[in-house]
Amino acid sequence: MSRRRVRPVLLAAALLALGACERSADSGAIKVVIAEYSKDHTAPFWRALAEQYTTQSKVKVDLQVVDWNSIDQQVSTMIQNNQPPDVLNLNSFSSYARDGLLHPADEILSPRTRDDFLDAFARGGTYRGTLYGFPILSSARAFFYNKTLFGRAGIAAPPRTWDDFLRAARQIQALPGGVIGYALPLGPEEAQAEWAIWMWNNGGDWKSGERWTINSDRNVQTLTFLADLANKYRVTQVNPGKTNRTDGAFQLFKDGKVGMVIGFSPLAKQLDAEGKVDYGVTTMPTHVGAPVTLGVEDYLMAFKKKGNQDRVKGFLDLYYQPANITRWILAEGFLPVTKSGLEKMSGDPKLKPYLDALPNAKLAPTTDPAWDKVKLDVQQTIGLAVQPGGNPRQVLDQLQKNAIAAEGGR
Amino acid sequence: MALLAAVIGFPVVQLARASVSQYSITGLYQGSVGARNYVRLAQQEALPAVIANTAVWVAAVVGVTLLLSLGLAQLLDQEFRGRALVRLALIVPWAASLIMTSKLFVWLYDYYFGILNHVLVSVGVLGHPVDWLGDDRTILGAMIVVGVFVSLPFTTYVLLAGLQAIPGDVYEAARVDGASAWRVYRSVTLPLLRPAVLVAVALNVIYVFNSFPIVWTLNDRNPGFGHDTMITYMYKIAFKSALRDVGLAAALGVVNVLLTLAAVLGYLRTVRWREQDV
User: Cβ(B57)–Cβ(B227) under 8 Å?
Assistant: First the structure.
């Protein structure tokens, strides 16, 4: 073939390809963006689900599995360019609801799917009285302790109160071999979670009704306690305000260097796989009242796009079929969000401590769009309060001020 | 040419447009705000520290890299056994992904598991381990070391190419005149190496200024903006801070582009002007 003839042929091929794309879009493709919970399970499950959906409904699924580090950025770019996904999985939803981008539940879920959601998680996905954020999975934190180190330090039982906790931490820290009492991760990765658990177990909270209460006296007392752990009693790892969870606190616990840490079921999975640390899982030590833990709810949401309603509805209903959602949640090692799922999973002894904790779990105030900014603010600043010379009250005052400002602004 | 204009022009226009716009936290466009993002940028409390960090980061990495590369290039210009192997080995940090290299250094620097503390403490240089990435006094230096490490290969090869382009008879002439080795280096090698140095510095300034992975990876445990450069600060403004503001980040993006352009043009002008003077 001569050079000259190649070009028109290529051009024709390109046009054909374009035409093909267009046609498939007409017959209805949906774009589904899912966060990557694990390399092993996330993409395979959703790919299979997408194929199943395409086979049964002839609707093509453009599936994108995106890692957590870049998902905020990628979704923001999609919306800036006016190419939002049809279905999105994320850890926040209310800003999208506020911007009027989402289908409410009664337009996009069958009543059977809607009614299967556990009440707490349906509440956690509600913005101004309407359900927009559909629970995709949940997790709950629990208190992990190293049984070997507890034995060496002569501590009989895991701590129930803050006093027990401090005593245990000091005894473990005093052991020879440079071990650490408690691994406290207040670096930017997940500081809001660590902070919330300590805050709640001292009777404090993010908000009281509609009012932010980040700088309440109770919270100042809690943050001062955490700063004292680091600087006065010296029972934490070095620079807790600059330690992240995954490659910091968890790593130390997995290496057997730490007596106690706040973890969750995926950490237990890793510990079991490595088999290096003899650990126990229990409830949080508390200063006031019954122990409280943090529950985390992640969401699925459906974006309003012309004529996508039926296609998206079919896809969501397929995911929420008990067999599908439970298969995935079990594979990833997380906790159920539906009544049918809870029933199925309650027999699993490994999940018992987390499922037991679930009724007493509190969620972050994700139903408030201001939370999306408050969370980032906490991540970037609260660590500074536990560094030498840090000022807990000042840090909390600033967070409170910014939270009120975030409420007003968009 | 049209392709070039499209590839370069389109993003620039988009960036400039974004910088005068307001976006919701979700990315939803909310209208034009004129120069307001630039005014707000100038008012950010963290900005002076970030600018200072950026200046030190660029100057130190580019400067140290140039000095070390001059020596390395000289060494690799000599004939010795295994030269091919050493030349090959030098490419490795260049070929490896920046994120991988940065992660590797995170573990080398680690307070508890890092080999650096282990070695320094056991040979008695340090009395106790140092939290290289968590200590405000050491983190910038720790980042600069990695920056130099990954900039060395490119710079050395540019200088090596420059050295090999210098004809042998100039050296012979100098030797006949009885010049000392140092004198030859200063009066013959360096002036003839000037074009190569020029290119190396100009390109390195751009690379190092724009370098994201090293600063991001080594600094990810530190709260706040105390150790950010203008590039990582831009990312945090857009996605990782309470600001969550794409428009404001775009304004900083425009400033960054202009700043790099100005720095490189300024540098090239000064150098050329001096050349004409000579």
Answer: no
* pTM, entire model: 0.90
Count Cβ atoms below 10 Å from residue A151 Cβ, excluding itself: 11
Chain A residues with CB under 8 Å of B17 CB are: none
CA–CA min distance B244, chain A (Å): 7
CA distances from A16 to A4, A11, A27, A135 (A): 20, 9, 17, 41
- Is B238 in CB contact (< 8 Å) with chain A? yes
What DSSP letter does each residue of A133-197 carry, written as one string? -EEEEEEEEEEEEEHHHHHHTT--S---BHHHHHHHHHHHHTSTTT-EEE----STTTHHHHHHH
Gap between the Cα atoms of B116 and B59, Å rounded: 25
Question: If you average pLDDT over residues A109-120, what whole number do you get?
Answer: 95
Q: Give the pairing type, strands A87-90 and A29-35.
A: parallel
Nearest CB to B25 within list A95, A243, A382:
A95
Cα distance from B4 to chain A (closest Cα, Å)? 21
- Both structure tokens of B99: 């994120």
B216 Cα distance to chain centroid: 13
- Asked if B221 lies within 8 A of A242 by C-beta distance, the reply is yes
**Inter-chain residue contact A257 with B242, CB threshold 8 Å:** no
Residues in chain B: 278
pLDDT confidence of A360, banded at 50, 70, 90?
confident
Q: Is B214:B102 a contact under the CB 8 Å cutoff?
A: yes
Tokens of A14: 């390109």
* Strand, helix or coil for residue A335: strand
Question: CB B26 to CB A406 under 8 A?
Answer: no
Taking the C-alpha atoms of residue B225 and residue A221, their distance in angstroms, rounded to an integer, is 26
Q: Name chain B contacts of A379, Cβ cutoff 8 Å.
A: 223, 240
Beta carbons of B200 and B158 less than 8 angstroms apart: yes
Does B23 contact A189 at a Cβ distance shorter than 8 Å?
Answer: no
Kindly report the number of other CB atoms within 10 A of residue B167's CB atom.
10
Quote the pLDDT of residue A409.
Answer: 56
Q: Which residue has the tokens 């073939």?
A: A1
Structural contact between residues B215 and B228, judged by C-beta atoms closer than 8 angstroms: yes
